[in-house]
Amino acid sequence: MAVPQLDPAKLQLVQELEIEMMSDMYNRLVSACHQKCIPVKYHEAELGKGESVCLDRCVAKYLDVHERIGKKLSNMSQGEAEDLTKINLQEKK
Length: 93
Hints:
This protein is an all-alpha fold. Helix content is about 80%, strand content about 0%. It has 2 helices and no strands. The protein has helices at about 10-35, 50-90. The protein is elongated.
């Protein structure tokens, strides 16, 4: 399958959107895991073992769910594109 060529302006826009989406995901991850794993009042400057383990698990789960949702949405949009193609072919007959 051939990859469509984008002009430089569109490519720049796609890259900026991707960076913005990744930055948003990172900020949400940090916020969610910080809220879940780090107490409001700090007792020590360094993370405790329990906090570190909690953060590690939280990040792993967050990224796993993000990947699963991305795959599901991709499959759904691909299925919709196939359905539209079938409909267009049927209308042309």
